[in-house]
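Troubleshooting entry. The earlier prediction with adenosine-5'-diphosphate gave an output that would not parse, so I re-checked the input for stray whitespace and re-submitted. Clean input:
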Amino acid sequence: WFECEVEVPYEAVAMNFVINYYEHYDNNGGADFKAPLFLPASAPSLDAWQAGLAEALRQREVARRSEAARAAEERERRAEEKKRRAQELVKAVERRKVRHVLFTQPEVVPAGGEVTVHYCPRDTPLAGRQQLYLMGGWNRWSHRRSFGPIAMHPPGEGGEHWQATVQVPKDAFKMDFVFADVPGGEGVYDNRGGFDYHLPVEGSPIREQPLHICHIAVEMAPIAKVGGLGDVVTALGRAVQEQGHLVEVVLPRYDFFTHSPVLKDQLRFETEFEWGGTRVYVTTAVVENLRVFFIEPRNGFFATPTVYGRYDDEVRFDFFCKAALEFLLKTGRQPDILHCHDWSTAHVAAAYWRDYHPYGLHKPRVVFTIHNLNYGQKKIGEAAHACQKFTTVSPTYAFEVGANPVIAPHAHKFLGIRNGIDPELWSPEENPFLPQGYGPENVVEGKKAARQALRQRLGLTTWNDKFIVAVVSRLTGQKGVPLIKHAAFRTLDRGGQFVLLGSAPDPRVQADFDALAGQMGGQDAAFCFKYDEPLSHLIYAAADMVVVPSMFEPCGLTQMIAMRYGSVPIVRHTGGLRDTVFDVDFDKERAAWELYGSSDWRRDGIDATNGFAFTGTDAPALDYALNRAIDAWYNDRAWFQGLQRRVMEQDWSWNRPAIDYIELYFS
Ligand code: ADP
């Protein structure tokens, strides 16, 4: 008899074993040996044993969950930390940009102390004046004290800065000021394009009041998203709320909310009232951390399966605008800002000033944002007239549409603020659709893994190491269809692989692309005609270059998403594409200023360029940019990979635009 001792786990009910000597086994003729086990000595009964076992399993599960929760907390903490650093950076860039025009001594304005403002008018409307005056107030102009006009001391020999000294009240938290060439009244002002200059003051016992902003909109992602408008309402709302302000959203309550997983079991009754010849119910829920109120009139106006598309959309949405205002009035809300969007809630602006402002809902000012100028221009014009400020989704697009007859008469209150992307939604670091997560430090490996996965999935040749050019786009006139086709030809011509993900609403365009796919598709070109968000993540990650040759582009998200995934954008310089993509060869100055607030990239050693751009609308124009990118890929791979790393590190989130919107709200 041979013997050995075995420790029996508490939860074991049977023992299975074989016996061996080197490569010889006795496994009971293939059946193995089995021995039933008796209850452990510590368990007096079967019930006690089961209870003990259940407890042990429970404890193990509790430990596993608390470990997972700890890990999730740690991830969240790191993400928060990263976000905070990014927000700090945005503010630092802003300070640097202002510093180009002015600085103070001491650098931090002290409450109850004295501050000297140094001002260089070289790049302002006041360049070359003989006299300059400084005038201002405190706490966003809400303080009873003000100062100036103070005649500024002109610059000394060889200097450029004018200066003036001001006493700071003890209870000031903000210093507000403008410059002029005459002491008050007529004359030329530098009021920072209508925003005035604002510097934080340290040491006041009083803090800045948070703003209360109420969006009135007919779309909101993810519960009611049709296009970019829905994304902006949610993302902008969240970003502004994160800066410490109160943000609420008023939406219609559509029929399709019944099936919304986000709203399930969440809707609560808020109030009801009689208005507009019907009964109006208001419910509420929290969506993406934002408080949302849903307007549900019993006349069935929003008992619709989609947001748009009923015969009477204009009547329904005008009704919604006023019902939303009625709700604010009835519940005694007094937001600082009503923010309305596109033609669908444009009516808020005029209706507020005519029918609500004089009758109790008196505090708000109205901001209006144009996401798409192609629909409802008459209504957009009315809102442009009635609102206090209106915006569109990028500075260059604002410049391009500024002469439009509905905008031009109100151009003095119009500006462009670019959209952002959600870096958590579009994340190469943690992404279930990618074979391997990656960041700037391992972009080369991460993209290589994605490239192989994409090639296998789309049936492209995998054995060689060709570069990939991708297009992810709706295939419509706006997006530059002929140039997209040309990009496909040129890419194959230069030895690369081309991937297109797109859908064409127009059957003629679709037929065109079908022909192209028939002609080129196969080993080195893949055409996917569908809307497929998971696939889009893999394409952005796998591509070396992403082409966006739009004829016009209010903001554009594709190029920003591409950069987040380390793909180099090749774009036509129009609208938001011009505000986000800086050509490696001719945009160094603009890039350094926009991204770092540096007015001299050579001196500061900054290269913040991030792509390739062209301006014409024909094939040679696109070639000019595309060929340079491909040449760089062939001739200097290390440089190209450095560029991929750099574009990944740039911040195209809502951090920056949120600050611009907050300044706008305050103004
Ligand atoms: P627009 O709103 O004019 O279509 P944007 O560039 O602002 O253009 O936004 C396009 C968005 O839609 C991007 O997020 C892009 O990835 C996505 N997209 C476009 N076509 C497709 C498609 N066929 N499949 C998946 N996503 C797509």
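This one parsed fine. The chain has four domains: 1-85, 100-202, 212-420+659-666, 440-651.
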